[in-house]
Every structure is written in structure tokens, then in C-alpha cells.
């Protein structure tokens, strides 16, 4: 007979023999039902009280929990729990009073109620049972039984009415009756035992056993054993089975005598066996319910005691009780004040990595002493349990109470561990395939009980008060840490099961773990998610049922905001986590949601109907307090295969995934609003007017109340504050840094796995590797993240560079091979990287490995060479034995391997046994990287572990294999093997780290700011899912769900200012409206439009640039409304497609709405050619619905509620849309202006905003009106201008304070339109608008005057008389009526500018002259205006703070500048003349009162710029031709120059500081190429000097002479010597003929500005003149060659000179002419005695040096005959050039001034007489000598030029004083004689005669002597006469 007993610590045993099971008779069945009705606990309700009373639980209903998986574990060293437990208060009872005691079964109550009130003293039912037993045949046969019965009856009668004192007397006959084979007798005995247990009769202590004595075996335990022994397997009668269940239930539920330990487990085990082995389905169901009730009672008792402890702790400490437990010394968390700490653990890494396989070998709690066979203990409950804590007076009593509490917790631990162990049993394939098999039903029931426990008693697991002592240290450990090893093992064995029922309950268990225990099981949850559930979700071979069930769980998770945020914080932000769980979860859901599932309308309808009826597509019953019936009948009744739905099975998955994603968005929104509500309110309060939302009437979304109780929610706040359960505070900044660091790490690893060198560089750069030292790099590669590709590690370490070799050596040196077998060491070595394929790299690895191995094991081999060769040999053997490439080829044998390794141990052989063992090991166990074993090598028949094996077994067992399920099982095996190998490598790495692991750091979410980063990493998945689902589906519900997702996503993006994300979602939603493709627009697109409008209403403050998409859709909607209303589509082009219509169809009626656009390249289409788009009528009707219209209107109306930044974004977007509308339909007769109208509307709505906001708004609106106002379509322009006028009227109603410019900016568009428009009616309308504003709002205008004058200024430039006259009339009206207001508002300069522009209008001279006269009259009006500070009637002037506050600058300067502007830019000569006259007249009239700084301004800003044209002709941009420029120069500028000099002389005292500027101006004029200007400039210079000669001071003379220096230097034609290339010319000919010493003297003297003049060689001069003459003759008469030359002779012609070269030559000639002009100017100046007398001698000498330099330059050029001829040949002049006039003129002036200075008797002059004489005498001698040698025939021109100079020299010398004259007679007398040989003119002859006479007088040569006085007077008269004659001669010569 097969029996199944609850395991004593191992598996459930079952026999394979099958036994036929007879059908239950009807009477027995009915009996069962009656018993079942009385004994089974009722189906619990949701409001189940948490009390320990069994009978009350039966009456009221008790919630029955569903459980979680766990793991069995070998007796290895315990590991600390991963996280400490947390206090949970959600499911704890609030009161423990009124607990029922000593409840009985319902049957006993029914019997006793019939006889009246029954107590334990009433033993009637016992007597009846004993009598029945005694009367039975069995009693008659068994004397022992009959004696026992009789003894019991006698005892009862003796003590009546009290029960017998010794309960053993009563129990013994019942025990013997239970051993009978008579089922009826057994039933009677069992019934009686059960009732006695219910009455707690067995709790009576026998008289011979005292209260404190140790009882060997409690009677209750013997009773339980007796009851259990009655079950003999499936052959036990059904009634007996039922009575067994009843009795055991009574034993477990008894609260007066509580059974613990082995007795409790026996009761549960036997009930479990009855469930499995009973042939009666009714009994199976009863046993299942009873077992559920038992488990519930065990945990309920723990809950009650925890509640009492919490209450006691609250009274004592006002906080939750904390049990302090010592920490491990190496606790990685560093928390010293945690309330619960793990016990000390063995070696492990600092951060333990967990995989599925690790659950097999890890122990979180040492439970060796807590065995299933623990002795049964009995607790007798006290009447007032709550009082035992509060009334306790000593620590000992509390300690005893703690021990008693632990007994209850141990019960819970034993029961839960038993359930977990039952669930992990490996089943044979035939049982896996049959759900009715014992093994499968056992597994299902255990899993369901785990689920029930977790569902209803989670507080037992998470409460920090729920502790149990471990076997090793006896220290308290949290309950969750004690059971998690079994829970996780159970879940890992079954979570991936291919059995649907198992998979479903495991999903529910996982959800309970995730929702309630994620703090304590952080790492475990990560493994389950990554390795199982997300993998199953992604696996295409997973069944639909599995995915549906898993999605149900994920949907719950997605609806829990806190859980989602904490998943993100603890996995995505944790660099020690295996993966980014939140991101992966969203990606997996998005992948399913975006999968393409074809579905017809019929199928969709079927799905909708089924969903509406509430039918679960997956077929799973969902979470419940009771497990489903697992009886064989129920399982048999269930359909083996689900009904095939009429729609694709993948469609519900797609729909469910979409639900999950939307729930995630909803959860994120809820979490974001948690903290932002107050912040937004605070921000709104700071806004003017409290604008916090666009639509106040829109109801705010009510946050969902999460039905999931998260660990953080159930933990008291003080625990969170103290970080007591491994949870840390939520520091947003730190977590974001951690997230960024993790992202950087993952990116660096990705780079390493692609290019190792680049990855290592990135890792060092980001600080993941401390430095570039080989040790640091090697440490990271060896102990770094598992994501590092080991193949790339091998490639990197195997490189031959020195750096790589050093890293590889450090890498190997970190491995410790001490006392390790060679093969084991090699395996460990090769697990750390993948060996590269290149032989040289392998060789380097093996060399280092051999060296490292021998260093740790020096006695292993003879030397390192042996280890090296053997390592190589083992690798080759491994490849030979296991390589797939060698299939079909002979493999290496053991003998071959031994032979290959002979003599490698220093010429000795290694033992053959040793080599043979290596061979065998490698052959059977390949050296391969963990996780890289091929899936094809998996043994499908191996019973490895859990659900994976079950799936394999079921697939093999089935005759017809399910290929999909087979593929799923294979994928699951691959997953399990990969994670197992991964975990093993991590465990090894942790052991090498030799440090204790602490609790994993868990972040409890509190900040709402995490939602932003969460959305950033997942928004693309959301977008693809929502947009893809909306595009594919036509289901209204799906579309609305997608739209809700869009709303939520946009809300998140807006809330956290995610620009890219917001733009993407809003643009996608806008595109989905299909308003640009009306033919494809459907009802779902209308939903998208509604969603978009709703977003605009609710998120308006945060949309920013996305307003454009919204407003573009609104514009397109208006177009659709017009088209659907009957307007021709051809007249309404699509704005987004950019098509402009040229509509000439007059039949199109005007309409209130406006049209759209098409590019101008498209030909005009009339109505006959218009195309009509077909669209759905219901869509059109919906678009015109009142709801849609109201939504649009609310958007615009509520703009006044937008905040400052939002309204700016809104206006900017609307302006862009408006411009697109206008551009698209601008050439249409009826252009679209919908958005333009809305702009005007919102301007009205928002005009009451504060000025700061309104200014920003108007900056955008004004620019838009500027664009629109200049559009060629007048319909648009007129509408814009009229709207602008109306807005201006309203705006001008508001007062404006001084110094603000709001009105000015508001009216700017009028000025822009007037300036840029080319349409006269538009300009006329602008002026009309301004005229209306002046008439209606003139008194309110402040800063707007400036803009108005700007408009009038622009109008003054027009060529249309109506425009100009209308504008001028308005200006004159303002001038007359509002002059004072203009001055007061600071617009006086604007008015002057306006009048100036009218003055410059050449086309209308009458207006121009009137304007000039008005300008002239402005001065007296201004000075008489009271508002003007310059007025005599003003009340005083405020102190000038800035230049803009200066009244001179504010009032005088604009008037003067007006005249200047007309003078410079006016085209009319009369206007310029008047302006020039008025300018200087005004300055002369009022300049006396100007301050010096204003005179500076006038000169530099007004006067001097008049002459800028002299420096740059580009300044005269107003003139179109050189003739006009010449006219301006010859008229206006010349007169201006004269007026300027007159002004300077008039106000010389005020302007003398600017003399240098005036001189600079004159220098510029004199240096002009225009002869007239140059002479006028020279004249003005003379005028300046002569009129101011008496006012000039020495510093003034210095400036004047400096000006002359600049003039002489500028006009010196130095280019004469560089104009011709010097290559063909003798350089010596370019030098003067004077001697070298003379030349040097000349240069030195010139540098020192001395008066020394170099001598002139008469011979050279004569030769030069002769050569020049000969050259001229040669040009006229060609020389006839002596030899024969018969070519025709041609006269030489001058070469053709280019225009550029001619200009160059002309500039040189101009300089020569100007030099002559300067010489003439100096000569004329010094004819004035005042000039001569006033100039200081030093300055006069500087001036003489200039004459000397000019003379020397001319003499040098004239003496260079070759140069002159070349210049002539190059076309410089028509004849050879010379500077004869410059030479003679400068010499004449020089001599005359020197002579005058020589004769001057003033002390200042006398001081320099010697120097004058030294310069004068050589010069005079040279002049006479040069004159004597001139040829009268060929050099007549030279003679005429020099004759006046010679006369001056002779007369000057003649008048020398007698002494000086006598001293130079020897020099001049020979020269005089030589002159007699020349043909002399009358003047020369008279001068020579006077000289000879004077010589005779001095030498007494017989010449008639004269009186001294008479002679002297004659000399003076002659001198004066000669001087006047000389001047006349010089003028004649120069002319």
C-alpha cells in the first residue's frame, strides 16, 4: 500500500505500485458531506479576524494565504541574511482581548446543545463511546480492550460529575480501540478522542505528575500518534480518514493546549498524506481544507503574539521593539545601529552575486537544531496573554516570554520549511505528465500553501520582532532570513516549470515576495527577474499561458508607484546589480506591445465580448485566500486543454503589455505628484494672478490608491530614519551620480568588449581603474564586473607589448595556486579569461602560469619547464578530446598522451599513473569557460533540479511531442546552466576576496525627482509602443488607452522639463491626428485630437516649443471644419504641404473663416479643377462638434492663466503657425488668417499682464505684425493694421510712467510697415491709424511719440505727395499744439529728426523749405518753452547726471545736427545753402553761451565731419556722380570752410584749444587734388593766421609751423625718384652734382633743421641744362647714323600709359604743384610785417628749413638729367619734366627772408645773425655763379626764372653794413665782373651798378662819395623798392 509521509528532512517517499480504488458508496458519500458541512472551515471572507481561536476562525472565516518558494540547503557554513527584517503593521491585529479559549468542533457543539449546556464535567458522550466499544465483538475478543473500557467507565462513575483526575484512564481504551480493524469501532474511538481534545481534557495533569515535573511524553502527543496510526494508506476506510482529519484538526486548533514541534508536524503530515492517498475526492478536499486551516492557525498564533509584543514595545519605548544583535566585524554596510544583523558568516565577496544555481548551495540560516523530529511541547495558554507583558516585573519573566514566543515562531518555521521541501521534490516524468499523480498534487498543494501563508501572514516574515535563534551562535535571526533559503529554492525549482498550474502559483508567490519582501530579498528578486521571468517573457517558445500569467503579475507591479521607483533605484542605479531591471522590464513590455498580431474585426469583437464578460483569457483563478481544489475529481473535471479562443492568442498579450505600460506611466505620474504638488502650488503663488494651470475647470486626476502594501509602507518611519533594515535614505543627487557612474561603467565595458585598449582607457578616465599601473588594471580585469568579455580579456593580456605583458604578469600573480593540484590550478587559471588562439600569446600565458605554479608549489616538479610543457600538453589534450572540428578523426589515446610527456621532468618521466589520471580527468571533464557549454550536450534524461527537469520529463513522456514546449525547455536549460556557471565564478571570486558580505543596501524611495531619469531611460519604448499600437488598432478602447498613455507621458516630460521627450511625444500625437491627410482620418485620429487638446489644456504651462504642434493641429482642424462645411478645398491649401493657391475664381464667396496655403510654383486652379478629398462623414461631424469647438476656444481663452514663460512660448508658436498660414495662402483672394485672428484675441486676453511679461509677449507679436504688415496681399495687411490699431487704442488707455518705453515698442510695427511696405494704400492706412490715435488718445501718448515721429520720418522720404503732405501736416499740427508735451516726454530729438527728413525731400521743395524754416524757428520756440531747461522761464534745471541728461545735448545738439544733416545729405542746393547759413548763424548768435565741452561736441560731431569727404569720398554716399560731388565741394564745402575759419577767428578764445584740429582740416583741404579746394584751403590758412596774428601765442605758432611741416612733407614728390625702375639707370646720375662733402653736409643739415645750404656746382648745372636741351633737340631732330641704315626712320613716340599709371603720374604732378602753392603761401604770409614780427625765431628757422629742403629736392631732381629723360620717355609729361619753378621760387623766398632776418636789429634776431650769414653768403654765391653760366640761347627759360633771384641777391648784399660788406667784397666782386659778360636786364643792371658803386665807395676807388646819412637813406629806400619789385617778379615767375 503506497503511503506518503511528511519528510523528516528529506523527500516524500512514494511507491510506484498502483492500487485499484473502489468507489465510495452513496451512504458513505452522504455521510461525508454531512460531516464535511459540520467540520470543514467555511470559505473565508475578506474581513477575517486575526485571532488564534480555531472555532471562531471556523465560524467567521479565516483568510488562507498563498505561498512562496524556498530552498533546501546542505549543512554548510551558514551565510548571513541578505537583508534584515522589517516591522510590518498592516496585517497585525489591533486587539488581542476577548480571545476564545478551548473551542470544540461543530459536531460536539451540536450534540451537547441537544442535551443542554455541556461542560467538561459532563462525560456522557465518553461513556456512550466506551459502552459502544465495550459491546463490540472486538472488545469481547481482546481482554485488554474490555478491561481498559471497564476501568475507564468505573473511573468516570466514581468521579461523577467531575471527570477522572487521570486522563490516561479514559485515553487507554480509546487508544486500544483505534488499533482495531473494525472501522466503525475506530471511528467511534477517534470521534471521542477528537471531542476530548477539543475540551482540552488531555491538558489535565495526572495526580502523580506535578506541574513542574518533566513529562516523558505528553498525552496530547500520544493522542496525536494514536490518531495518525489509524491511517493505513489508501485502503483506510473513508469514514476513518474523515475522523482522523477531524481529530487532528481539533488537536491543532486547540488553543488551551497548544501542540508544538513533532506533534504538530505529525498532525500536518498525516493530514497531508490523507489528501494525497485518499481515494475519496471528498476526503481529499476535506484534508486540503483542514491542512490549510492548520497552517493558518500556526501562523495566526505568531501574528497575535507579535501584535502583543508590538503593543508592549509601544508602551515601553513609544516605538517598535528592536532586538540588538551583534554585527559581523566586516559588515560591508557599515551600519552600527541596525536593529537586526546577520550572524557571522564565512568567507564571501563584499557584494554577493546570486544566480539560480546559488540557491542550491547557500544557507541564510543555520537550522540544524530545528528538526522535524523535535520533541512535542505543550503550552497551556494563559487567560490574559496581553497582560503577561504589561504586568511583568522582572527581566526573567520577559526572557521566559521571549522563549515561549520563539516556540511559536519555530512552529511556523517548521511548517513553512516543510512546505518548501515538499515543493522542491524531483518528480519522475510520468508524474509530471499527470496532474492527478501524487507527486504533482503534492507539489501543487505545497506551493499553494506557501502562497496562502505569504498572502495572509506576511507580517510574520517582515516583522523585526519575528526572530528565531540559529543553531550556530544562538543569536536571534529574522524570520525572513531563516526561511528565505527554502523559499528561494522552492521558487527557483518551480518558477520556470512547463506545468501551467505550477508556473501560475509560482508567479503569485513571486509577486508577494516582490511586493512585500523586496527590501530583504533584493538580490534574490534581481536573479528571479533577470534569469527567469524576463527571460521567459522574451523567449518566443514560452507558452501564451505562461506569458499571460507573468503579465498579470507585472501589471500589479506596474500599478505600484513605489515598487517601480524602488526597482529603478536599487537595480538601475546600483552598479553591483546584474542589469537595469526597470529599463529591461519596460523594453520587454514594449517588445510585446509592438509585436504585430493580425486580427480581424470579427476576432476583435470576440475578444471585446469576452473581456466585457469578465472571462480571464489565461484561465487562472487569480489571487485568493483559499487554494483551488486539488482533489483528483476536481483535476479530472478541469479541461486538460484550454478552449481555443476565436482570436489570436498573442493579441491579449499585446493588449496586456500595453496596459502594463500605461499603468507604469500612471504610476510615474502619481509618484511625481507626491512632492510636486506643494512645489507647484508655491510656484503658482509666486506668479502674478496665481496662474497655475491653463484650465482651472479641468478636474485634476485623483491619484490611484495602490492596493499593494510595499515594505516601505509597512515599516515605521523611525526604522527608515535609522536605516535599520538595510534601507538607505533617498538622496536624489547621490543616486543620480550613481546612475551616471553605472552608465559610464557599462559604456566603458562595452568599449572594452569591442576594443580592449579603448575600453581600458575609458575605465581609467572614469576612475573605475585607479591608475594606469599594471597592478590596478590587472585587479580590475580579474575581479571586475562579470560583463567583461573573457575572450577580450585574453586578447588584451596576450598582446606582445611591454605594457600588456606587465599587466598579464600582474594578473597571474594575483592568483594563488598554493597546495592545488596541477589540473585544478590550470582550470582556475583558464576560468579567468578565454585563451586566445594565437600560439605566441598562448606561449606567454603558459610560461607565466608555470612560473606562478612552481612558486606556490616548489616541490611539485623539478622545475618550471616541466609545468610549462605539461600545461601546454594538457591544453592540446583538451582540444583534441573535445573539439567539434576533429569529429571523425582519431583522438589521442592515453598511451599517446603519456608518450608525448616523457622526459619533461628534467629529463625524467612523470609517473604514468599521474599522467593517466590527468588524461582521464580531461577526457571526462572538459576545461571550458563556465557558461559556455553547448546546449546540445545537456542530458535531457538527467534529473537535475526543479521545474526545468519537470518540463523536460513531461515533454519526453508525452507521445506526441510539443515542439514549442520542447524548445522552451531547451532554452530554460541553457539559461539555468549559464547562470549556474556565472554564480560559481562569482562565489570563487568572493572567496578569494576573503571578506564578509553585509546586507545589500536597499534604497527606500521618497523623492519624486527620480521619475524624470526613469522616463529618460525608457521613453523610447513607451513611444514606440503607444504609437505603434494606436497605428495598428482600430479598437476604441485600445486607442483611448494609447491616448491616455500619451497624456501621461507628455505630463511626465513636461513636469521634468525633458525637451527631447516632450517634443517626441507631442509631435507623434499631432501626426497621429492625420489632419494633414483627411482621406485617412478615422475615429481613432479624432481621439488623438481630443488627447492633444486635453494636453494643451492641462499641461499648457510646460509645453514650451511643443505648442507649435498643438496650434498647427488646431489650424488644420479649422481647415477641416471649413472643408466639411462646404468650402472648396482648392481654396484651402494644406499648410503642412506648403502649396499656395493663386485663386482668380470670383465665385468663391467671402467667409468668416480663413484659408490656407500652396507654393507659388503650382498653377492656379479654378473651381472646375478643384479636387475634393473624401473623408468619413462621422469624422467630419465629430470635428465640428460643440465639444471640439469649445475645447479649442478654451485653449485660447485660458491663455491668460498661463505663467509668464508659457505665454511667451504660446505666442511664439502661434505666430509661427500664423505666418505659415499666411505664406501658404497669401496669394489667394481670401487668405487664411485664423491664427492671426487668434493672436489678436489672446492679445486682448493678456493685455492686463504685468509689463515685464507683456513686453516679452509683444516682442514676438510685434515682429509678427512686422512680417504680416509687409505682405504683398493687402487683405492681410489691412486686417493686421486694423487689428493693431484697435490693440493700440486699448493699450494707450493705460497710463505710462516717465522713462518707460512700452508705448514706443507697441507702436513699432507701424513704423516697420511704413518703412518696408511698397504699397501706397498701406502707407496711407498707417498714417490714418496714427491720425486716429492722435485724435482719440493724444493726451495719453508718452513714449509713443518717438515711434510716431519715426513713422512720419519714413513718410517724409516718400515720393508720393499725398503721403508727404499728410505726414507733414500731422507733424506741424503736433509742433503747434503739443510742442511742450513733446519736450516734456523727451521726444524733441525725434521731432527734429522728422523735420530734418522733410527738409531733405528734394522732390517736394516747398515742403523741404518749409521744414527748414520750421527748424530755424525751433530755436526761439525751444528757448521760450517753459518745459525746456534752456528756457529762461523754466523753474531751474536738475543737475546733469549723464550725457543724455545734458540739456545742451538734448536740445541744442539735435537742432544743430539737423542743419548739419541737411548740409551733408541734402540733394537740393537751396536747402543745403540755407542749412549751412542757418547752422553758422545759429552758432555765431548763440555760441557765446555754449560751454567748452559742448563746443567740443559741436566741432567733432558737426563741423569737422563736414570735411570728411576730403579724406574719403565714400562719405558722400548721397551723391550719385562725380559731378554732384564736385558741385557740393565747389559750393557747399568751400563756403563751409570759410564759415568755419570765420567761426574760429570769431570765437578764438573758446576754440583755441582745438587749433590743431582746425589746422589738420586745412592741411587736408590744401592736399586735395582739386586746385580750387587747395587754393581755398591755402587762402583760409592765410586768413586764419592773418586775422588771429595778434592772438597767437608761441604754442599756437608751434602748431602752425607743424602744419606747414606736414604740408611740405606731404607735397614733396619723392615718387619722382621711384616712379621709374632703377635697373637701367646709373645710380650716380641720381645724386646732385655737388661734392660728396657737400652732399653729406646737406643731409646732416637737413636732419638738424639748420640753415646751411649746400653749394651748387655751376659746371654741373650748366651741363645738366645743356644735356636737357640736347635731349630735347634730339627728340625733335633724330641723329643720322654714320653707317648704312636703310630702314625708314620713324620719330620716337611716347609709350601708351595705362589709366592706373596715369593716375600715379598725376598724383606726383599734383604734389609738385601743391609744393609751389606752399612756397607761394609762405612768401605771401611774410609780406605781412605783423606775421614776421609775431613769429618766434625758432619757429621761423623751422619754416626756413622747409624752404631749404624744398630747394635742395628741386635742385637734386633738376640735376638728374637721365631720370628726367626716362620719365619723359615713360609718358610722365609731354616734355622732359623739371622743378625749375620750385627751385627758383623756394630759393627766392628763402633768400628774401634770410636777408630780412639779417638786417633785423631785434635782439631775438641778432642772436642768430652769424648762422644767418653763414647760410646766406654761400647760397648767394651759388645763385650768381649758376646764373652766370646759363646759356642765353638754350637756357633762356632758366635765365628768366633766376634773374629776379640774382637781383635780390645783389641788392641784398649791396645793403650789407659796411663791415660785413667789406668782408665779402673779394667773393662778390669777381662774380659781379662775370655778370657784366651777360646780357642783363634793366633790373639786373641797376642792381649790379649799385653793387659796384658800393664797392668803389668802400674801396675808395674814385667813385663819388655820399654822405653817410644820405647813402643810408638811399639804401633803405632801394631796399624797400627792391623788395616790392622782388615780390612782383616772383609772382610773375610763379604764374
Summary, kept brief:
Residues 1-103, 315-352, 365-402, 686-706, 1619-1673 are annotated as: Disordered. The chain contains 81 helices and six strands. With 1935 residues, it is mainly α.
Q: What do these coordinates show?
A:
There is one protein chain. By secondary structure, the protein is mainly α. Among the domains are: 106-254, no CATH class; 737-929, Arf Nucleotide-binding Site Opener,domain 2 (Arf Nucleotide-binding Site Opener, domain 2), CATH 1.10.1000; 1356-1360 and 1368-1489; 1614-1676 and 1701-1934, no CATH class. It has a two-stranded antiparallel sheet with strand order 1-2. Helix 4 packs antiparallel against helix 8 (183-198), helix 20 (522-538) runs parallel beside helix 23 and helix 37 packs across helix 38 (912-924). GO terms for molecular function: guanyl-nucleotide exchange factor activity. InterPro entries: ARM-type_fold, DCB_dom, Mon2/Sec7/BIG1-like_HDS, Mon2/Sec7/BIG1-like_HUS, Sec7/BIG1-like_C, Sec7_C_sf, Sec7_dom, Sec7_dom_sf. Residues 328-339, 686-695 have a biased composition (Basic and acidic residues). Residues 1-103, 315-352, 365-402, 686-706, 1619-1673 are annotated as: Disordered.
What is the CA–CA distance across the termini?
156 Å
Q: Please list the strands of the largest sheet in the order they lie side by side.
A: 1-2
Q: What is the mean pLDDT?
A: 74
Approximate strand percentage? under 5%
Major β-sheet, in short? 2 strands, antiparallel
Low-confidence stretches: 1-119, 318-352, 382-394, 616-622, 688-710, 712-726, 934-961, 979-991, 993-999, 1139-1170, 1434-1441, 1623-1692, ...
Number of helices: 81
Q: Name the overall outline.
A: elongated
Number of strands: 6
Radius of gyration: 60 Å
Helix content: 55-70%
Helix and strand content put the structural class at mainly alpha
Biased composition (Polar residues): 19-34, 45-54, 84-98, 316-327, 696-706, 1624-1634
Protein name: SEC7 domain-containing protein
Keywords: Cytoplasm, Membrane, Protein transport, Transport
Biased composition (Basic and acidic residues): 328-339, 686-695
